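Explain the record.
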Amino acid sequence: MAEKPTYEELEKKIQELDRAESEHNQMEDTLKNSEAEIKSIFRAAPIGIGVVCDRTFQQVNNRFCEITGYSRAELIGQNSKMIYPSDEEYEYVGSEKYRMIKEKRTGTVETHFRRKNGEIINVLLSSTPIDLTDLSTGVLFTALDITERKKTEKALKKNESRYRLLTDNLNDVIWTMDMEQHLTYFSPSIQKLCGYTPEEALQIPLENVLTPESCEKAVQVMMEEIEREGKPGVSQDRYRILELEHIRKDGSTVWAEVTTSFLRNEDGLATGFIGISHDITERMKVEVALRESERKFRLLADHTLDWEYWIDLDGNYVYISPSCERVTGYKPEEFISNQELLLKIVKPAYTKNVQNHYSDENYKDTPVFSMEFPIIAKSGKEVWLEHNCSPIFDDKENYAGRRGNNRDITDRKRAEDALRSISQLNESIIASSPIGITIYNSNGNCITANNAAAKIIGATKEKILQQNYNQLDSWKKSGLYDVALHSVHEKEKKHHEIKVKTTFGKDLFLDIHLVPIIIKNEPHLLIMFENITERKQAQIDKARLEEQYHQAQKMESVGRLAGGVAHDFNNALSVITGFTEMALGETDPAGQLHDDLNEISMAAKRAADITRQLMAFARKQKITPQVLNLNDNVKNTLKMMRRLIGENIDLAWLPGANLWSVKTDPTQIDQILANLCVNARDAIEGVGKITIESENTSLTEDYCDTHPGFVPGEFVLLSVSDNGCGMNREILDNIFEPFYTTKDVDKGTGLGLATVYGIVKQNKGFINAYSEPDVGTTIKIYLSRHETETAKIHGESKEKIPTSKGETILVVEDDPAILKIIQKILKRLDYTVLTSIAPEKTMEIVKEHTGKIHLLITDVIMPKMNGRDLAELLQSINPDLKCVFMSGYTADVLDSHEILDKKMNFIQKPFSRKELAEIIRKVLDE
């Protein structure tokens, strides 16, 4: 049995218990405070903190919620897989983290979280077990958002890559050196500069990289910079540039311009040197060559015969070559010490020009100067100088002054004066020659032409002097160009005759002599020519008259033969015709025999027509004029005309109403129609159209003024039009001449249109032809109206003619004579008139005219552009513009070519003043 404790022991025990209780309470207070602090740190920590057990969130702080975008309620109790972008990432983090915990007690990995909004972020995740002996108790983790840091690292790596790429590919060498002058880095371009690889170059001491002189200079510069370092007022950003000679691996040397400065640490303290070396070997060679060139120039300038000089920015001499003394008698020192000396020795009459010149040449933008002037040398002798000067610029393109030279040209001037006298004599002889003379240089440019040449060719001397025979089509077409080239190349005189057109379109025959000559040591071609047109034309006329005489003899023989057999031939035709008509009366009109007899009858009539035509040529045909209506005659011949031209050609008959009577032989009308229809048929290839028209018309004095041979009066107009191949102006001018034909020898005699012309003139009528290539032809025949007293038009009709109401009319016509008469008529009717002779120039006239243009009157068929296209072009800019079209062709022919349609306002040439006035007013008043 134990002994009872004493009072002292009990009191002591109580005190120990009190002390133990006090320490326990104190420890609890401390523990509570620590727990509060831990909770406060947990909540306010700047990094994400949490606890997971079996990879399920148990606790998370505010920062972790901010990082993931989820609230604490959305995370607690959830598997951590919810914040990983993929199962693979989730599995990887788990296996890697626990592996590291086993090895190091703590696992740290870089991974990715998917935030609540779907954004993927970079996270540094660290985990530590709460109890190392029992992992089931959970893991404390921290999560740090390193997204921005990763971006920065990526950008840094990219910049480092760019820097490395830059340094690796620079032609210049980048190098570094420590403070003890040991080289620590070379960029790969060291191999281009010195032949060493960067690794090899780093093993070579500085004294073996540079030549001794350059090495000494480099060391001295580095020591100077080290000594200046840290002193007041010395910039840390300073650098030095020096030129150093490097030793290459093969022992040769290269020059480099080296720019160097200090390498500094974060505190700005110098830790070494960095530099860039740029290869200037070629530049050094150029500088050496330039110095050598300057030495040679000085040597050349000092010994040249010309007086060379240089002036500075202020216009003062800085150099004058010794040869100035030979030219002027004055020494260079005298000119340099007296800047006005040159002006004092210039002849007084030239002083002002030279003074102005020297004043102007001091401006840097002034181009090269050149002038000639005389001076009085020190000996009193007159000396002519040729002065040339030009601006000088330094290597930075800054104006630095001017250089020039003065050459003694006194002997040349004397020779030029003598040559000028001879030249003036030659020019006088050439100018007064009645023969055309031109001279061409080796490039083919005309350098001289006399008045006779201009008169013969019909051009001004200025125009001739602009010629180059390499570009003259007339020379190439006539063969003169080949003759000229042969004369120049072979240096032989040549003689040639050519046919050319003057500027007025007139044919000209020239007799030309070509002579190769030498002027100022250069080959030239002298051409002398004479107008032999009259002589040539006389020869042509003689040959043509002889041919016509032979043709006339043949026709006279034919006429005599025709006259001798006409009686018997006509008797035979009469028998054929009589019996045919009798047989026709006894046969069935619907039978084949009746048609065959009709063909025989028509053939007999054609034979009779041929006889009459042949007799007309032989002047054996008796003419019996009758008063008749042309419409009846044409109508009676239409069937024969249709058979004559063939089935592939459409024959249209457009008779005029209330046609006036004419007095003529009806057989002549048949001849006219037959000849015109045959010609029209031959002009059409394949399918085509021939139109015969008749109408009453009046010819005014205005019309007759522009059509020589026509007289005013009332006429019946008979026109035959076709849409065949047409004719050009040259053919059109000759179609009525006897024996002129464009047909093959076996297809035409050249007498058809001559016969028509003779018949019309015999009946005191008139004939006109209109034609354009590829458009067609219209032949118009005017036969006088037959009445007791023919109504002549001597002036304006008493019937009132409508006039202008203040309108402006634009007239476009390629025939100058027609354009002139229309302009005259319109002005008399008080219209404002604008005229154009070429459709392609009309737009310029319209743009220049400031007022309104109310009406366009245009010819339908014109070169380059027809009237319809012109009207459409003008109406595109002036939609209110009204139009009247005119033509020598009938509207029917124009319609067949789809140039006009029936809705367009049309007036056919020729037209009277009244007809023109009426259609203008009608169109304008619509």
